Amino acid sequence: MTGSSTQGIKTVLHPVSDLAAAKAVYTALLGVQPQAEGPYYVGFDVEGQHIGLVPGGGPQGMTSPVAYWHVSDIEAKLAEVTAAGATVQEPAHEVGGGRRVATFTDPDGNVLGLLQDR
């Protein structure tokens, strides 16, 4: 393998229709209060995992949960997966705080994500 290293799935985002209702369920499930909370996003950090709730699937229009693999070089990893047959859905872009994300689909249309912190 060449290119960037993959550090595993550490982030999973879930599209939700009712942020307050979903927040209550995930708070009960995870046993912790959210570490990030706003009208556009609620995020929980539990044992090295980040679980995010995105109302309406966010600007990317998620319709199902998306797992994000943390990588050291998002552009290199995106090039590797597309060379292997993946299709870019959302090109790499900054989402704040130096964090960059991208999504792609596998040959069956499953949406997968990449995340790179600065």
TrEMBL record:
Q: Looking at the keywords, is Lyase present? A: yes
Q: Which InterPro entries does the record associate with it?
A: Anthracycline_SecMetBiosynth, Glyas_Bleomycin-R_OHBP_Dase, Glyas_Fos-R_dOase_dom, VOC_core
Keywords tagged on the record: Lyase
Domain VOC spans what residues?
8-117
Q: Which GO terms describe its molecular function?
A: lyase activity
Q: Which Pfam families match?
A: Glyoxalase
Listed name of the protein: Enzyme related to lactoylglutathione lyase
Q: What species is this protein from?
A: Kutzneria viridogrisea
